[in-house]
């Protein structure tokens, strides 16, 4: 009989790892680490002991991996990201180590089944959205491919925030995920780094040259915590190294003894604030300064660690690009360019030109956004205050750039102005996107259309000057987490038909295509989908109090709240469906449950008002007896990876409805398709490539194209009131929104949304609303034909092979990093 995917045991793990070995490890850990008798251990105790036991197994493999690397001294990848949205690690590590099936065989003197302790694990609060989840998928793929690659980031104590609702409004509370300490983190005090900040730059005469020197700097200590990253098969275990900030002076004893008890620990408190929270609000100056400190802190720690490792086996610094590839995940780590320059010049005494050549060859930059507000611009004064030496280096880099531009394009002042790293104005600013491009040998986008837009609209001047630097690397997701672990029943069904090679070679899912019309396979596919819906329904009941019909269509939009992602367009269509039922007496073709999830930035008032609108719509729709079971609307609070692992397998419809030309790629769209949801989407980001792969007939397309959006914006031809007057559907929806239908006791609270749409509508909701309503009606009708829907859904799974992060990382390794597997 063919093995299930969840029973497949990779051969790389030590043969001595048995259920008995795990039991022995857990008993020892419970007794000596947790000081608990096995029989008295709680669920939390058992989870911690199991996680630590698995960590021990992973650590053994981590040592074996390090020894394998040291024999050949390979070129290594260092992935710098301010976010890592890891999700829970236990099940993923069990799967990747090939020991998941042993858990049910572990015998302990305790009545609690080990299977029941898995949900005790906290989600690490180390990321927010797609940027962090992509980073997590990438380091998983590096390990699976046997690449010597490591992630670097910040060990946030509180992460982003926990989201909860109060009268429908988003509220935030601290996410104290480290209160119980993470069993996966290994403190590496021996690898601590000293990070200089503040101070001033003085100039000395050295051999007739003006030599800058950074003096009077304060020091902060970066203490690394390693988390094992287990590749599938368990042969390669790399690590994610996260730094916590510590004060270099724990206590000013003199001040303390003089009675200044609070002042005595002031420096400690200020220093350790750096690694407290992800994305502190930059609405105030102190928040901006803290963000800059965070970004410099982690890249300084990373560069220090990278240089330490390089110098252990090499003496010629000019060979650094042959041994290290540093990838900047968006603009947040861009100060790594200036920091590497500083270390090469100030610490190791290299001249400017040599240091710049090394830096350019070592750095690579991934752009993730075309939104102007997301391309960071830091005030020069702030940089001069926090990292004065780096500001001098940035001026020098810009001077070097301007000379080159002036030589290539003499007299073209406008081009020089656009390309300058320094933005002139009442307040001078540093354009971090420009610095990232100038300081990197490779600049890549994350989907085919996005990479073209980077070249043509975001950085056309740089592309004209350095066309060879620009390339595309379409994003991907790890099938280990997003199918094998998140949807084990479907993984088992797939493996029973085509074997388990798809786990590491996702394109082998193509072998499933003949089963899309196999009635037994389709029936089993729907049975598994129903089981997954039941699991999600329990979470919805627990978190929102709503009972949902698992026979209804699950129509899902889960992602970070932002206007360009157009959750509001979804809301407008929901309002239209509500009007059809309650005012027109119509019955929807298929009962539908609209499921939303996502967080708004604490200072993003408009996005928070959209969440309030959804919650009010939910309250009205779900309590109107006229609607009965035709539709439900639920907004799941505190959306995170562990919830996502329940959402994607349960979805029938995937909403990917951003304004064309605004989404870089998206990866949620890939997770939905891999789990058999059909996409309703625009021609934006990776949607285009998904549609091409799965077949145009298996994708529900609507909306304007990127050129059409661009033309409308350039001509100013979008007239919301004309659409309001000419389309009765739009008029009814907007009238309902402005009529307080969804705010009976809170008159006028959604007026800002109405005004935003009717006076500006920058993201062209009304321009796309008509075609969105039409395609949604088609979706509702098509869902009734289960055989045809099942065929479309299974073909989405079968044709998702391109969207593995293994493919993406293999392309990075070959085209950008020149890094080879060490197996």
Describe this structure in words.
By secondary structure, the protein is α/β, with parallel strands linked by helices. Among the domains are: 1-72 and 88-122, no CATH class; 479-704 and 765-807, Glycogen Phosphorylase B (Rossmann fold, 3-Layer(aba) Sandwich). It is 47% helix and 14% strand. The strands form five sheets. Strands 1, 2, 5, 6, 9, 10, 11, 12, 16 and 17 form a ten-stranded mixed β-sheet that branches. Helix 2 (43-72) crosses helix 3 (90-97) and helix 21 packs parallel to helix 22 (605-622). The longest helix has 30 residues, at 43-72. The mean pLDDT is 95.
Characteristics of this structure?
823 residues, alpha/beta, Rossmann fold, 10-stranded mixed sheet, 6-stranded parallel sheet, 32 helices, 47% helix, globular
Q: What's the CATH C level of the domain at 479-704 and 765-807?
A: Alpha Beta
- The portion of residues forming beta strands comes to 5-15%
Task: Compute the number of strand runs.
Answer: 23
Looking at the structure, the CATH topology of the domain at 479-704 and 765-807 is Rossmann fold
CA-CA gap between termini: 31 Å
> Any low-confidence stretches, pLDDT <50, length ≥5?
none
Main sheet characteristics: 10 strands, mixed
Helix content: 40-55%
- Overall shape: it is globular
Question: Which structural class matches the secondary elements?
Answer: alpha/beta
Instruction: Count up the helices.
Output: 32
CATH architectural label of the domain at 479-704 and 765-807 = 3-Layer(aba) Sandwich
CATH superfamily of the domain at 479-704 and 765-807: Glycogen Phosphorylase B
Radius of gyration: 27 Å
């Amino acid at each position: 009989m063919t093995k299930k995917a969840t029973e497949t045991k990779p051969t790389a793990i030590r043969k001595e790892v048995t259920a008995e070995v795990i039991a022995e490890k857990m008993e020892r850990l419970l007794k000596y680490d947790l000081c608990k008798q096995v029989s008295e251990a709680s669920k939390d105790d058992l989870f911690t002991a199991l996680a630590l036991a698995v960590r021990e197994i992973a650590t053994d493999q981590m040592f074996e991996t390090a020894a394998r690397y040291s024999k050949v001294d390979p070129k290594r990848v260092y992935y710098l990201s301010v976010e890592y949205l890891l999700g829970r690690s236990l099940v993923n590590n069990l799967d990747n180590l090939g020991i998941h099936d042993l858990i049910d065989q572990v015998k302990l003197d305790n009545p609690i089944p080990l299977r029941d302790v898995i949900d005790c694990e906290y989600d690490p609060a180390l990321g927010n959205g797609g940027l962090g989840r992509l980073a997590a998928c990438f380091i998983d793929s590096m390990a699976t491919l046997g690449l010597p690659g490591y992630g670097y980031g910040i060990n946030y104590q509180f992460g982003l925030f926990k989201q909860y609702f109060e009268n429908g409004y988003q509220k935030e509370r601290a996410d104290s995920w480290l209160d119980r300490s993470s069993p996966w983190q290994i403190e590496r005090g021996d690898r601590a780094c000293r990070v200089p900040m503040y101070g001033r730059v003085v100039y000395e005469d050295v051999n007739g040259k003006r030599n800058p020197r950074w003096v009077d700097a304060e020091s902060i200590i970066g203490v690394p915590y390693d988390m094992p990253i287990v590749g599938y098969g368990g042969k390669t275990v790399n690590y994610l190294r996260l730094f916590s900030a510590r004060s270099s002076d724990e206590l000013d004893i003199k001040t303390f003894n003089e009675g200044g008890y609070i002042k005595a620990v002031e420096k400690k408190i200020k220093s350790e604030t750096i690694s407290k929270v992800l994305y502190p609000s930059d609405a105030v100056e102190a928040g901006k300064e803290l963000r800059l400190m965070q970004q410099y802190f982690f890249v300084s720690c990373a560069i220090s660690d990278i240089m330490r490792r390089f110098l252990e086996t090499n003496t010629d610094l000019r060979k650094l690009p042959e041994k290290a590839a540093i990838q900047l995940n968006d603009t947040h780590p861009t100060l790594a360019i200036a920091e590497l320059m500083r270390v090469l010049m100030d610490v190791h005494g290299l001249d400017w030109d040599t240091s710049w050549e090394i830096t350019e060859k070592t750095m690579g930059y991934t752009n993730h956004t075309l939104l102007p507000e997301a391309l960071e611009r830091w005030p020069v004064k702030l940089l001069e205050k926090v990292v004065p030496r780096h500001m001098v280096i940035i001026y020098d880099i810009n001077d070097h750039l301007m000379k080159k531009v002036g030589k290539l394009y003499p007299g073209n002042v406008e081009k020089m102005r656009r390309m300058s790293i320094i933005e002139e104005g009442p307040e001078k600013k540093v354009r971090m996107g420009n610095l990232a491009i100038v300081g990197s040998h490779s600049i890549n986008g994350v989907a085919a259309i996005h990479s073209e837009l980077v070249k043509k609209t975001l950085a056309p001047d740089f592309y004209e000057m350095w066309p060879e630097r620009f390339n595309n690397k379409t994003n991907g997701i790890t099938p280990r987490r997003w199918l094998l672990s998140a949807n084990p029943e479907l993984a088992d069904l797939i493996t029973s038909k085509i074997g388990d090679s798809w786990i590491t070679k996702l394109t082998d899912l193509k072998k499933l295509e003949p089963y899309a019309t196999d009635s037994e396979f389709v029936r089993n596919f729907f049975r598994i989908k129903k089981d997954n819906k039941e699991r999600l329904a329990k979470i919805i009941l627990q978190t929102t109090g709503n009972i949902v019909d698992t026979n209804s269509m699950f129509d899902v939009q889960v992602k970070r709240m932002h206007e360009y992602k157009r959750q509001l367009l979804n809301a407008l269509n929901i309002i239209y469906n509500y009007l059809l039922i309650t005012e027109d007496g119509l019955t929807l073709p298929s009962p539908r449950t609209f499921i939303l999830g996502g967080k708004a930035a604490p200072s993003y008032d408009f996005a928070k008002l959209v969440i309030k609108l959804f919650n009010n719509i939910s309250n009205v729709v779900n309590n109107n007896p006229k609607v009965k079971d035709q539709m439900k609307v639920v907004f799941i609070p505190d959306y995170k990876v562990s919830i996502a692992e329940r959402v994607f397998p349960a979805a029938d419809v995937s909403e990917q409805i951003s304004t064309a030309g605004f989404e870089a790629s998206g990866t949620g769209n890939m997770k939905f398709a891999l789990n058999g949801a059909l996409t309703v989407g625009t021609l934006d980001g990776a949607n285009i490539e998904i549609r091409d792969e799965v077949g145009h007939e298996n994708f529900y397309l609507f909306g304007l194209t990127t050129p059409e959006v661009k033309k409308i914006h350039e001509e100013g031809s979008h007239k919301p009131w004309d659409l309001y007057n000419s389309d009765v559907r739009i008029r009814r929806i907007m009238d309902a929104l402005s009529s307080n239908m969804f705010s009976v006791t809170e008159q006028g609270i959604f007026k800002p949304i109405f005004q935003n749409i009717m006076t500006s509508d920058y993201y062209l909701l009304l321009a796309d609303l008509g075609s969105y309503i039409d395609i949604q009606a088609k979706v509702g009708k098509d869902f009734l034909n289960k055989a045809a829907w099942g065929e479309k859904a299974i073909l989405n799974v079968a044709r998702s092979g391109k969207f593995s992060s293994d493919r993406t990382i293999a392309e990075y390794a070959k085209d950008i990093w020149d890094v080879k597997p060490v197996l």
